Amino acid sequence: MAGIALDAPPFYCPIESAIHPEAEETERRALAWIDRSGLCRTETDRALYAATRSADFYARFAPHADPDRLWIAACWVYWGFAFDDARCDEGPLAADPAAFATTAFSVQRALEVPGHLHCADPYAAAVHEIGELFRAAAGPVQNRRFQQAHRAWLTGVQWQIGNRATGRMPDLDDYLSMRLHSAGGGPTYAMLEIANGFDVPDREMDSPAVRALTEMAMMVASLDNDHHSRLRETSRRQTEQNIFNVLMTRHGYSPRHAVDEAVAVRDAVLERFLSLRDRVHPRASGPLRHYLTDLGHGIRGNIEWGLRVPRYLSPDGVAPAQRARIPTQSATIHWTDTPRTSRQDPRRLPSIAWWWNDLAF
Predict the structure, then answer these.
(1) Residue closest to 344 by CA, chosen among 333, 354, 332, 352
(2) Which Pfam families does the protein's record reference (predicted)?
(3) Is-contact 150 187, C-beta < 8 A?
(4) Are 61 and 292 in contact (CB under 8 A)?
(5) In a domain, 1, yes or no
(6) Residue 157, Cβ neighbours under 10 Å: how many?
(7) How far apart are CA 228 and CA 313, in angstroms?
(8) Measured between alpha carbons, how far is 329 from 326 in angstroms, rounded to an integer?
(9) How far apart are CA 349 and CA 45, in angstroms?
């Protein structure tokens, strides 16, 4: 099943496109940091990191961010893709949950510890430096939220690696629980406060409604990434866990029906996100309104980035020899104004059904 080609239908996403005007300068600064970080052992490594277009990616999440904070967030995205390739999806830890747990704890601790820290692992050393940059640029609340989201991401990856090690294919509910964290959406969205330089009040950020909105944005982007990454994962034999194989293996769907159902589940989540955001927004503080708007920017920006990035569009994940200018316009693709209807009603899935409750704010 992993080798079956599945065409993606048009994207339902009634959210406006946006990108930071300093996207190219952000890329220049972040790649200069990558060159200094010790992560690039070869020119191929450097080409692979550059081909993630991580600055373009995050410039779409935070189109109004402070430029001196935005480039640090982009550094983490570059680092995250590098770590994902070397320690999560490939290499000796990719099917060894115990060994990965040791590495994940070391990396997490390196992020959290302030001040001088000797790290033998270059990935731990690099994320420690990013943590220092975040501590210098943002307050303790912003950093705490990012660190907690970072820990949840590593926990989700360990769950994924555990499934891989035992040959287990999760069912749809388990997969969505795992994917919510393993895709890295938590720390990516948590950086919005750092990049924008604001604190959302705890009483708002921790409310059930805002927690649900954050999780729904993470889920939509994660399922969109399942579409984007199929070419790369098929070429690298990494497709054992994605929503399409879950629906085919555990729920008996044909390949075509698996695509239709995956899109329908994703569309149902996005519709609920949009309706709940519209209810919360009028009563939100200024920082929360900015945060909610950028949750939507992240959903739209993740689609646009994924449809053009060499990481997903070329089997080897390397950009063409001639560096392409970061585009500021939307990709020329087909969009749809009509969401699909799901047979697997996500409101009946225990792990996410609460998103449709009457949520307090």
Answers:
(1) 352
(2) Terpene_syn_C_2
(3) yes
(4) no
(5) no
(6) 26
(7) 8
(8) 9
(9) 40
**Residue 6 maps to a domain:** no
The total of structural domains in the chain comes to 1
CA–CA distance, 38 with 320 (Å, rounded to integer): 24
Whole-model pTM: value is 0.93
Element (H, E) at 336: strand 335-336
Q: What is the pLDDT of residues 185-226, one digit of tens each?
A: 999 999 999 999 999 999 999 999 999 999 999 999 999 999
Burial grade of 43 (CB within 10 A; 0-12, 13-18, 19 or more): exposed
**In this structure, is residue 306 part of a structural domain?**
yes
Domain range for 130:
11-356
Residue 154's CATH number: 1.10.600.10
Residue 3 domain-assigned (yes or no): no
Which pairs with CB-CB distance under 8 Å and at least 24 residues apart come from 137-142?
Answer: 137/68, 137/69, 137/72, 137/194, 138/69, 138/193, 138/194, 138/197, 139/199, 141/193, 141/199, 141/202, 142/193, 142/194, 142/199
